[in-house]
Amino acid sequence: MKLYDYFRSSAAYRVRIAMNLKGLSADREFIHLRKGEQRGEAYRAINPQKLVPTLIDGDVTLSQSLAIIEYLDETKDGAALLPADPVGRARVRQLAQIIACDIHPINNLRILGYLTGKLGLSEEQRDEWYRHWVKEGFEALEALLQDKATGTFCHGDSPTLADICLVPQVFNGLRFKVDMAPYPVINRIYAQCNTLDAFAEAKPDVQPDAEA
What we know:
Glutaredoxin; 9 helices; 51% helix
């Protein structure tokens, strides 16, 4: 397998965690998003959306982190990343999609760049935009997690797709100085996840392409 990656991409961070949990490895090629390498002709031919991650597995090429993770879960051995029962799978997808579909897309690099570029917002206004949408999402997520907070992780006693999405979002929320005090269950789960090598070894600052 080959993974197109960037150390600070939340979506790529998710895939790194998932691969670690399943004991998988891949050749990695790093696409520097801030330098615009994703817009180059060669990479656009691989991923027309010009985003990371992209996974190539034989003759299969996939983008979109949740699609990649579910593909890996369904086709590779290792720890299951979704519960076996339909209700559990739906709940885990619900939690994951709050982050991957509602919080992250309006806060990723290209959106933040548009805010400070085309729309002329200051960096402080950009950061306040970021914090606002993280808080909106985390309020809902915290309520849902408190309602079912009977396990060690987001759903039960083993990490799932929900935890894989949660950890990169909290990591980036802390980078943007989101006040995490109102979210004790999220904080507990985040800390628990990071005791596992699969999460610790996927962190942005320990990747080969990491920058200060």
